[in-house]
Amino acid sequence: MASHSRHTLQHLRTLINGDPDRFSANVYTRMFSIDPDLRELFPAVMAHQRDAFFRVIDHVLEVVPAESGHAELIEFLAQLGRDHRKYGVLPEHYGVMYQALISEFAAVMGDYWDDEAAQTVTQAMMLTTGVMRGAAETAPHPALWSAEVVEKYRITRDLAVVRLITDSPLRFAPGQYLEVQVPQRPKVWRDLSPAIPPNPAGELEFHVRAVQGGTVSSAIVGETRVGDVWYFAQGHGTLHIEPDRPVLMIAGGTGLAPLRALLIEMSKRADSPATHIFYGMRHPGELYDLAVLRRIASTNPWLTVTAVSEETTDPWWITAMATPESLGVEHRIGTLADAVIESGTWDDHQVLIAGSPKMIETTRRRLVIAGVRASRIQHDPVV
């Protein structure tokens, strides 16, 4: 790419980063004015949608003028195209998005929008919308599939287990997460990690904690009923096990779910590598699935389980939970990062971390400082 074209895209990126929400809102306003029916495809509150849209466009403007990363960008855009089918996006809608983007870019750039700038930006947006449209049109599997809730129970006041059955093929790998829409929050999609691997019976299980301000998680924990139909889109995530290296797993809260699915899948094999999982919560009574991990370990000598809690005792509202001590599981007090680092050296292990963004970042940083190669540490953005 010529230096002038590179500078144009970099300058445009700087301009839209000045007010990301206004940029995204203006693009959507232009889209809805071109095709008012498009508004029906989106939720009433679009703050999350606008933020996600801006991050995509910002990423495109960052990578296109760069020296590398183009192949990864194409795959990223293709996946977005396949994903957007779940909203009801049709091939012709990409032309509307293209028109709205070019119009807004011209307005943002003002006097900088000349013929050369227009050509550069047009090519970048034609690439973006063209790849997404092509991937959507050639996707091999249906955009959506459904499953029915057959069981739901609350473990604590803010934590629930939901089990579902589907007749559809389960096209995801153990450790991946799925895009999910629940009937209580139509048109709103969230990522949830199955706690069991795909199976011929079509069974699904999710562990969901209601987080403050989380409308979907709160609805799942508080309002889900047997008979509800959930919709699912694509599977994402890259957590996996390499068979020739010992494994360190670190699970915070419901981040246990994808690692649990991997452990169940590993328990079906005779050659699974030695694995040590650290499972942590704030209170010991919140280690809701510790008994399941203990049962897996009892028949799989390659698995070691360590429970971690920041507090030594439970508050009054946590009752009827087996303690780590009663299960015969090692119990450490402190943060997950402290417990892992103090338990030994892990530089020869592959590491999988799942939990809150803060826990993942803190633990990852501590491990790198302790000598673990960053390339051997796996984590997904969501669990």
TrEMBL record:
<feature type="domain" description="FAD-binding FR-type">
    <location>
        <begin position="142"/>
        <end position="260"/>
    </location>
</feature>
<feature type="domain" description="Globin">
    <location>
        <begin position="1"/>
        <end position="137"/>
    </location>
</feature>
<dbReference type="GO" id="GO:0005344">
    <property type="term" value="F:oxygen carrier activity"/>
</dbReference>
<dbReference type="Pfam" id="PF00970">
    <property type="entry name" value="FAD_binding_6"/>
</dbReference>
<dbReference type="GO" id="GO:0051537">
    <property type="term" value="F:2 iron, 2 sulfur cluster binding"/>
</dbReference>
<keyword id="KW-0001">2Fe-2S</keyword>
<dbReference type="InterPro" id="IPR050415">
    <property type="entry name" value="MRET"/>
</dbReference>
<dbReference type="Pfam" id="PF00042">
    <property type="entry name" value="Globin"/>
</dbReference>
<dbReference type="GO" id="GO:0004497">
    <property type="term" value="F:monooxygenase activity"/>
</dbReference>
<keyword id="KW-0560">Oxidoreductase</keyword>
<dbReference type="Pfam" id="PF00175">
    <property type="entry name" value="NAD_binding_1"/>
</dbReference>
<keyword id="KW-0561">Oxygen transport</keyword>
<keyword id="KW-0408">Iron</keyword>
<comment type="similarity">
    <text>In the C-terminal section; belongs to the flavoprotein pyridine nucleotide cytochrome reductase family.</text>
</comment>
<dbReference type="InterPro" id="IPR017938">
    <property type="entry name" value="Riboflavin_synthase-like_b-brl"/>
</dbReference>
<keyword id="KW-0411">Iron-sulfur</keyword>
<dbReference type="InterPro" id="IPR039261">
    <property type="entry name" value="FNR_nucleotide-bd"/>
</dbReference>
<dbReference type="GO" id="GO:0020037">
    <property type="term" value="F:heme binding"/>
</dbReference>
<keyword id="KW-0349">Heme</keyword>
<keyword id="KW-0521">NADP</keyword>
<keyword id="KW-0813">Transport</keyword>
<keyword id="KW-0503">Monooxygenase</keyword>
<keyword id="KW-0479">Metal-binding</keyword>
<dbReference type="InterPro" id="IPR017927">
    <property type="entry name" value="FAD-bd_FR_type"/>
</dbReference>
<comment type="similarity">
    <text>Belongs to the globin family.</text>
</comment>
<dbReference type="InterPro" id="IPR001433">
    <property type="entry name" value="OxRdtase_FAD/NAD-bd"/>
</dbReference>
<dbReference type="InterPro" id="IPR008333">
    <property type="entry name" value="Cbr1-like_FAD-bd_dom"/>
</dbReference>
<dbReference type="GO" id="GO:0008941">
    <property type="term" value="F:nitric oxide dioxygenase NAD(P)H activity"/>
</dbReference>
<dbReference type="GO" id="GO:0019825">
    <property type="term" value="F:oxygen binding"/>
</dbReference>
<dbReference type="InterPro" id="IPR012292">
    <property type="entry name" value="Globin/Proto"/>
</dbReference>
<dbReference type="InterPro" id="IPR000971">
    <property type="entry name" value="Globin"/>
</dbReference>
<dbReference type="InterPro" id="IPR009050">
    <property type="entry name" value="Globin-like_sf"/>
</dbReference>
<keyword id="KW-0520">NAD</keyword>
<protein>
    <recommendedName>
        <fullName>nitric oxide dioxygenase</fullName>
        <ecNumber>1.14.12.17</ecNumber>
    </recommendedName>
</protein>
